[in-house]
Amino acid sequence: MTQFSIAKLPLDRRSLFRGTGALVVSLGLPGGFAAAELGAAVKPPLAPDQLDSWLAIKSDDNVVAYFGKMDMGQGVDVAIAQIVAEELDVPLARVSVVMGDTLWTVNQGGASGSTGVQKGGIALRNAAAEARRVLLELASARLGVPADRLEIADGVVAVTGDPARKLSYGELIGDRYFDLPMKWNGKLGNDLVAEGQAKPKPPGIYKIVGTSPPRFDVPAKVFGTLDYVTDVKVPGMLHGRMIRPPVAGAVPVAVDESSVRDIPRVRVVRDKGFIGILAEREWDAVQAAERLQVTWSEAAPPFPENAALYQHIRQAPVLKREVPLATGEIEPAFAGAARVVEAEYEWPFQSHASMGPGCAVVDAREDGATLWTGSQKPHFARDGVARALGLPQEKVHGIWVPGPGSYGRNDAGDAGIDAALLSKAVGRPVRVQGMRYEGHGWDPKGPASIHRARAALDPNGAVIGYAFESKGFSRVDIDTNESDPAYSLAGQLMGLPLKPLQGFGIPAEAYGFANKQLAWETIAPLLDRASPLRTAHLRDPVGPQIQFASESFIDEIAAAIGADPVAFRLRYLKAPRDIAVVKAAAERAKWEPRPSPRPDRNGDTLTGRGIAYAQRSGAVVAIVAEVEIDRRSGKVWARKFTVAHDCGLIINPDGLRHCIEGNIVQGTSRALSEEVAFDPARVTSTDWLSYPILDITEAPEAVDIVLLNRPELPPAGAGESSIRPVAAAIANAVFDATGVRLRRAPLTPERLKPALA
Amino acid sequence: MAERIAFELNGEQRTVEVTPETPLLYVLRNELGLNNPHFGCGLAQCGACTVHLDGAATRSCSVPVSAAAGTKLTTLAGLGTPEKPHPLQAAFIAEQVPQCGYCLNGWIMTAAALLRENPHPSEQQIRDGLSGLKCRCGTHMAILRAVRRAAQAA
């Protein structure tokens, strides 16, 4: 069996319900309730407007925080524990965090948009502050001393000047419940806000927030004792594998079960295009899936040639156009320009390519079901399984168990629906895991796109007009979460009606160009259902591609007028935080002001530096990349990065540094190596050889990080901000080193070498 | 046909009765109930399934269980314990290396074999020795720091 949570297990239900009876005190409390009402023996139902839904205090003085977002291995749970410990005035070691269990946590949206601390932390902070307020009042009543003569340290309330008179939190309410309402804005997911009457502490007095306690999950991972979703074993469980069409869009015409008759106890489950195969032993299921003979319909290959992808995007009809930003008058500015700079950039489909293919276990019974999932949005994954099984939501228990990597909506959600349908079909618990070709070939993809930029310059080289347009596949062919089976592979293979969504984005910058227009357009997917090129959110959805284009183009304008790239940016940036990160990165990197490219571009090893900056949901980042290029091979080594990072108040500096390093390395990989390959029938990059990611021999020599802490600002997300400008910083450095502007990602040797000859 | 295959697993003598062509990984995970190592690719391309066979880092997804017969097999969980960690495990904790951590078998088991052969490798030897292993979360910088730290501690 498995453990259900990275953090300590929740209080077991029996101990939770073994209350010691309500505490009876007589002192009235401010706020319209009496202390006598506190200390309920029975936990109120799980709802965002109940303090008990957010934290529990045990009789041994430990605190359990119930977090409805998720940590995906970046220490968000530690940050939440720090926030709770800080507000409650308890030692961090006393706080454990439960997340991802739908019986114990409210739906705060799971991992989504790097908002774990930024949004998810708000309710926890408020709840902890509220609990502290109430505990103080409770102590006041019990000790018969006014609250203003009490002080709290390490979870103990003591009389000022008489420390022997004290009560710990555990003595005050341990193993019982506050049964106290919180104000809730009625929303679930990312926008959920819950608050009590207490005002959280001002950051100026923080003692635990701002320090760097280590991660909870690291030792178990390093000693090989942590269970992943792939390790969940349920009694009676069958092993399932899915059969995917060899030509995208083909449907099975006939399935020859005799082809696997020699493998013991194999069962095939089929419903329209959905085919799964089950066996008692996992290796039998793997072999059966390989050998099963299926006759497929003669579907016309749905995709263009890979080489024609960008031409397809250029020519495809526009489904939706938005102009989220327009200031001044664009066309008059261009009509009156002394000079116009123009460029077009291209970005391919990219894969989540998680370390392990999607996996889930479902035990579907007549009256309910249990889902074990690695999805980063387990509440929504639970909702999707409930719908797929035709069960009410509350009859399905979703349990998150760490998955093999998660950077958005990967293949984890599909595995959950697959396992649910197979389990229902055979009446036994089923574990489904993909094979590697599914992890790469059938996961939802980050969208391919083109980006056109134009700048109008006056005779002095000042920018008097700026237009940037992206055109590409929607970022959300399938929705951002798995709550609707219509967006799952299984649902689409079984013919559920399609509900395509349209969305893209614009550059995240604030250059003060006078006449400025930022727009996007989406086009139809290449195959409308169950497509191996369907898109969904991949880390910093559409951020890296848009900023690759927009920040490359800023350098192209600077180069056109012979300006230093840092000085050019500072000429147009107005927001103090934007200016601060650009200056901090340049200063730390010992940036030498001069235009790009560098004048001396000789020798077999070319070197250069480039800068790029980006905003993201309240965070702002500037990156200086320094590259070395082997002229003979065209290979780019991103040797060093200097990152200036401002995400508001910093909760855990060391965790933040690790998070930034991961962003930089994954961003470098996507900039230099990653491109989904396909032919007209299928995705052909289906393993690590055909979809290479950054090797450790290619890792930077150094990632130098400057953290700009802003205690006066609320914490913003850091999980994705610093991946956004990486590709542009590298491309700008490549231009500086070589004088060659690469406008198609990834920046592979095959693309650079011919230009260096 | 199933055969009896015996080996020493993390210090304990074990015998399994399986078809000898079954990949070692499936036998470790299912017949022997280990939850570690992991299936990553089944193609010996990523390292998530790495174990030591007589000290040599081996991709257990791509060798038949018969290859383990008579060997001393060590997994990440058998390399060290919280009470007695392998220097690499201590270093990976000190450097807070993993994000998702699914890849760790590859890095730690391969680095352990590397450091046994060459206790004080150069930076280039560390990188070359770990080349080919995958970490999708991009913890490369921390991995390098941890291996350097373990090498210095040796």
Task: Outline the secondary-structure elements.
The complex is a heterodimer of chains A (757) and B (154).
Chain A: H1 13-17, E1 55-57, E2 63-67, H2 76-88, E3 95-99, H3 120-143, E4 150-153, E5 156-159, E6 162-168, H4 169-173, E7 183-184, E8 194-195, H5 218-222, E9 238-242, E10 252-256, E11 267-271, E12 274-279, H6 282-291, E13 293-296, H7 309-315, E14 320-327, H8 330-335, E15 339-347, E16 350-351, E17 359-365, E18 368-373, H9 378-389, E19 396-400, H10 412-426, E20 430-433, H11 436-441, E21 445-446, E22 449-457, E23 463-473, H12 489-493, E24 516-523, H13 543-560, H14 565-572, H15 576-588, E25 605-616, E26 619-630, E27 635-646, H16 653-672, E28 702-707, H17 726-738, H18 749-756
Parallel strand pairs in A: 2-3, 9-20, 18-19, 23-24, 27-28
Antiparallel strand pairs in A: 1-2, 4-5, 5-6, 7-8, 9-12, 10-13, 11-12, 14-24, 15-22, 16-21, 17-18, 17-20, 22-23, 25-26, 26-27
Helix pairs in contact in A: 2-3, 9-10, 13-17, 16-17
Chain B: E1 3-9, E2 12-18, H1 24-31, E3 50-53, E4 56-59, E5 72-74, H2 76-79, H3 87-94, H4 104-117, H5 123-130, H6 140-153
Parallel strand pairs in B: 1-5
Antiparallel strand pairs in B: 1-2, 3-4, 3-5
Helix pairs in contact in B: 3-6
What does this structure look like?
The complex is a heterodimer of chains A (757) and B (154). In chain A, 25% of the residues lie in helices and 22% in strands. With 757 residues, chain A is of the alpha+beta class. In chain A, the strands form eight sheets. Chain A has a seven-stranded mixed sheet with strand order 11-12-9-20-17-18-19, with helices on both faces. A five-stranded mixed sheet of chain A has the order 14-24-23-22-15, with helices on both faces. In chain A, helix 2 (76-88) packs parallel to helix 3 (120-143), helix 9 (378-389) runs parallel beside helix 10 and helix 13 (543-560) packs parallel to helix 17. Chain A starts with 12 loop residues before the first helix and ends with a helix. In chain A, 58% of the residues are buried. Chain B is an alpha+beta fold and 154 residues long. Helices cover 36% and strands 16% of the residues of chain B. Chain B is built from six helices and five strands. Chain B has helices spanning 24-31, 76-79, 87-94, 104-117, 123-130, 140-153; strands spanning 3-9, 12-18, 50-53, 56-59, 72-74. The longest helix of chain B is centred in the C-terminal third of the chain and has 14 residues, at 104-117. The mean pLDDT of chain B is 97.
